[in-house]
Design a protein that fits this description.
Helix content is 63%, strand content 0%. It is built from 5 helices and no strands. The N and C termini lie far apart (94 Å). The relative contact order is 0.05.
Length: 171
Amino acid sequence: MTQLASSYFEGFGSVFVFATLGALFVFANLFLIGKLIFRRPHKPDDGQKGEAFECGEPTMGDSWIRFDVRFYTLMLIFLIFDIEIAILFPWANVYDEFIAAGHGLYAFCAMFFFLGILTLGLAYDWVRKDLEWTSTAPGRAVSEEVLAGGVVDVPKLPSEMSSDVKEESAA
């Protein structure tokens, strides 16, 4: 090899040694800091570590229960009308600029159309009685126990019901 090529590779060798020592220094310090400073006490599992946390209240029953669909329906209705307000305020702030640009009627008609669709959605929810928490809408039988907040026996899935029918017929 020529004199130029050997000096060229010597420069890379020193860079490689420097980078290796730097990486070893960083990882050694991370390892020591992790072992010495951030040690956590070893506590044996007392059976509560894997349980669901319910805001400090004692856990009651299984966490995989079926929730009443009214919770989700009411949440979605709130979300839709909350977003409607978030869209309505910026529109109201720039409405004067639309009027000044000569597009006031277009902006008004567009927002009127938007609010009309939301009003139809509200009327639909009102007719279905999704806004009344204690109502019994068609197909939704609500017992007095549910209205009082009591624990209700969850109906079985169709696959579970077929095994019960087989057991009853065998007996």
